Amino acid sequence: MTESKYTGSENILEVRGLTKRFGGLVAVDNVDMTVKKREIHSLIGPNGAGKTTTLSMINGTLNPSEGTILFDGEDISARSTDQVAKMGMGRTFQNIKLFSTLTVIENIMLGGFCNYTKGGLLRFLINFRESSRYEHEMREKAEALADFVGVYAMKDKVVSDLPYGRQKMTELGRALMLDPKLILLDEPAAGLNPTERAEFIDIMMKVYDGGTDLMLIEHNMDVVMNISNMITVLSFGRKIAEGAPKEIQKNPEVIKAYLGSEYKPVI
Ligand SMILES: Nc1ncnc2c1ncn2[C@@H]1O[C@H](COP(=O)(O)OP(=O)(O)OP(=O)(O)O)[C@@H](O)[C@H]1O
Ligand SMILES: [Mg+2]
Questions:
Q1: Are 257 and 244 in contact (CB under 8 A)?
Q2: What is the second-level CATH architecture of the domain 1-88+182-267?
């Protein structure tokens, strides 16, 4: 295992009192959570527990109703998705979000684009030489990532023509374009067959070994229990438990709210 590339805070993420209300519904209710550097942290819980909403507040897709989010020690509570991405937070989505009419390589390249806007989009458009050099660099990087996530052979195909598993890999490739410190993965193994699942885990572990911390939402307990150092459990928007996989699997409240009495520990 390699050391983290970053030295700021000892925690990559700290969430305090995080709350999201949708009208009368409290989707996330006063959640505290700390993700340490060099940790694979999973967020689990029943459908509708508020997991995706939590991730969306963390990466700026949704504004919190209340609470504070620190990313590598910096307060990002009011930052936009683009700002948070530039600071080094990548994300993949429960329902894949790719541009379906663009090719695989174009989709991966787009993951790097928000980094360019430092000089302004206008500068990009009028300065052809600089923009074409930049595009060339991005294409090279995207090709290397396409190879890394196993979609190089289909890089020029329109993404909607790819099987579901390859689309998920493409999305991971896009999230890697900005060399993230942390990647948030929303149900990365859902819809994958066992071979694809094993491949995805293998790639995620390589990403982790390269120095990127991981936080994932996942319903597949084989995946969660085997790769996580720490697990946070949500139910009806509230944190009901937090701990190492061995503890979480025997926690009566987690068994009652989520795992079920038939659950057999996998580790
Ligand atoms: N944009 C929204 N507007 C209104 N209600 C929402 C919105 N997004 C989520 N919700 C509600 O908030 C609650 C939490 O949803 P969320 O998607 O975060 O759950 P989840 O834990 O990710 O569930 P799943 O495991 O099914 O993906 C649900 O009751 C959901 O219907
Ligand atoms: Mg969800």
A1: no
A2: 3-Layer(aba) Sandwich (3.40)
Best probe residue, ligand 1, of 18, 20, 22 (max atoms within 8 Å of C-beta): 22
Q: Which residues on neighbouring strands pair with residue 66, listed in sequence order?
A: 19
Reduced to 3 states (helix: H, G, I; strand: E, B; else coil), residue 169 is: helix
pLDDT, one tens digit per residue, over 233-263 is 999 999 999 999 999 999 999 999 999 999 9
Measured distance CA(257)–CA(240) in Å, rounded: 9
Q: Can you tell me the distance from the alpha carbon of 173 to that of 26, in angstroms, rounded to the nearest whole number? A: 34
Contact 108, 174 (CB under 8 A): yes
48 lines ligand 1 (CB under 6 A): yes
CA-closest residue to ligand 1 atom 12: 27
In the chain, where the domains are located: 1-88+182-267, 99-179
Sign of the Cα torsion 125, 128, 134, 137 reads positive
> For the segment 41-64, what is each residue's pLDDT rounded down to a tens digit?
999 999 999 999 999 999 999 999
Torsion of CA 43, 49, 55, 57, to 10 degrees: -140
3-state secondary structure of 229: coil
Q: Considering the entire predicted model, what is its pTM? A: 0.91
Mean pLDDT of 155-171: 95
Atom of ligand 1 nearest to the CA of 20: 12
Assign 14 to helix, strand or coil.
strand
* d(CA 186, ligand 2 centre) in Å: 7
Dihedral-angle region of residue 232 (phi above 0 means left; psi in -120 to 50 means alpha; beta otherwise)? beta
Return the bridge partners of 26, or none: 21
Which tokens belong to 232? 């946070």
